[in-house]
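PT: before anyone asks, these are the final sequences, not the draft ones from last week. 409 residues across everything. Please model them as a single complex and drop the result in this thread when it's through.
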Amino acid sequence: MSLDAVQPDPFVHDRLIEAVALHRDREAFAELFSYFAPRLKAWLIKSGATPGAAEDFAQDAMLTVWRKADLFDARKARAATWIFTIARNRRLDMLRRDARPLPVPEIELAEQTVERPDDIVALSQDAARVRDALSQLKPDQVEVLRLAFFMDSPHSEIARQLDLPLGTVKSRIRNAMIKLRLILEPSEEAAR
Amino acid sequence: MNARLHSSRGNPSEERLLAYAAGNLSPPEAVVVAAHLALRPANDAWVRQLQTVGGEFLDEAAPASMADDALMRAMARIETDAGEVKSQPPLNDMPELPEPLRRYALGPWRWIGPGMRVRDVHAPRDGDCRVILLEIGPGRETPRHTHGGVELTCVLSGAYATETERFDVGDLEEADPEVLHQPRVVSDEPCLCVVALDGQIELDGWLGRLIQPFVRL
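LR: through. Structure below.
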């Protein structure tokens, strides 16, 4: 570590998950919980869950983080992406009328992709590139994307919440996606 | 690949990929999209980028306040946690299927017409929406039909063509319920598809009227 201690460590959460995986480090888990559980709860409330259900969801998702920490690979996904994916799969489970779980969680499927060393570098840069790409979108485009991620029935709900016609919401999301693709795609090409 | 090329036929819409990345697709649709992504690495990479976007949004979300005892509860849970009993279901009998479909149990093949058979994929349903495998022989046409609800189809082997478009391995077709549909297999081998089917297919025409009473898709 350098003396340049003012810079927050961008990998702090990745290290905490690895500490949980390697040493079942309870302090590390408590730190992860304190950071991510309130954010997971906020997400679920936005998607229409009651505060009580959202609290339980955050608890359950974090327990999955504890259980699956050894599947985390910092080269493949950053901590926030990994926890997002866990929560996303959990949410998909909840949406199921039928209680049969997906036999192969997608996060594990993702592990099977063969990666060349240069892919790994590209992936570790993903989060920074995505952040940069988001900063190039217009604020109203970022807003609809964020809502599309965090709401159950995206388009009509978003239209209601933003008080916009449905068509406007749809085209705004589409334009945001096209712009994101244009910014992010060159390296997708390099990663192949 | 560029944004224009992406929107060509055989690719899911951006809305569909976004919904998949966010976990907002119904489970049967998610199964078909997962099969498509296994066959289309470029789209798979794009979905992973979208999940990174989701991670960023989660990271910067304004935190909600948790119950006072939330951390205590969490720590107590991990202390007593026996771990998840993780036994993967066995592989099914179709090694030709893409990985995301290999661990779903499959029902028996059922004949539904000349050169046509289906079997259920025991993936999670969503009300009436479920996943099936559909195999149609070379040169065969399915009876003309309209759709009861949203239908997603991914070609796993062979190829078929509709009145206007051709669908090859890995292509995803998002059927429009308004459109009368009569796909014809154009490959030399049978065409195998995984389909998310909502409600009953309504068959049309003399063959349809003939077999409809016997066929439950």
